Every structure is written in C-alpha cells, then in structure tokens.
Amino acid sequence: TVSMLRAIIPDIEGFRIANRKLYYRRANGLYVSHIDGSQAVQIEAQPTRALTIDVADNRLYWAVADSVRYMPLVGADNNRFTTVPTTLNTLQGVKKITIRNK
Fold first, then answer.
1. CB 16 within 8 A of CB 53
2. Which segment of 60-64, 75-79, 96-100 scores lowest on mean pLDDT?
C-alpha cells in the first residue's frame, strides 16, 4: 500500500510496479528498486512530473520539464540497465494543451 511504501521511502510522490520492480518518483528524480525498496538506482536526475508503464511494449515512460522520455523496463536483479533513457518528444515551445470532452 502507499502507507507501507511511505514507511520505506518517506518522500515518495508516485509509483508503478512492473516486472517485480518498483518505479517511483521523488522530488529529486526517478528511481527503480526491488519491491521492498532495496537496491534503489536513480534513472532520471530531473524532477519527474508523470510516470507510466506500458507492459505491452515493455517500456517505462515519464515526463520531465521539457520532454517525455522512455526506456525498457528493468529486468536485472541488481537494477542495472544497459540502455540510457531516450527522448520521445520535446515539449519546448508548447504553451498549453487543452482536451475537451464533448
């Protein structure tokens, strides 16, 4: 539960679970760890505004101040990954996005 995660990681802002890994946001970036919070590794050093996982394409997606980024889900037991995050879309110059539901 969120309260149990807050006992392990007090400043957790949001999380997702996939492939027996915990992906979570903190004020100083994006991390991956084992489900119990051990062996945490920072994926992104920038503050992360959104986080989602697409199991179908085996990717982790997140948004930072100026772009949307992605990388394959981590599968290694030591949370080390061989790929670096890839920028999917740059948000530079976007002023406002409005979605209307009719």
1. yes
2. 96-100
User: Cβ contacts of residue 91 below 8 Å, gap of 6+?
Assistant: 63, 65, 66, 67, 68
pLDDT-based confidence at residue 93 (cuts at 50, 70, 90): low
Confidence of residue 66 (pLDDT cuts 50, 70, 90): confident
DSSP output for 12-69: --EEEEETTEEEEEETTEEEEEETTS-S-EEEESSPPSEEEEETTTTEEEEE-SSEEE
Place of tokens 């999917």: 88
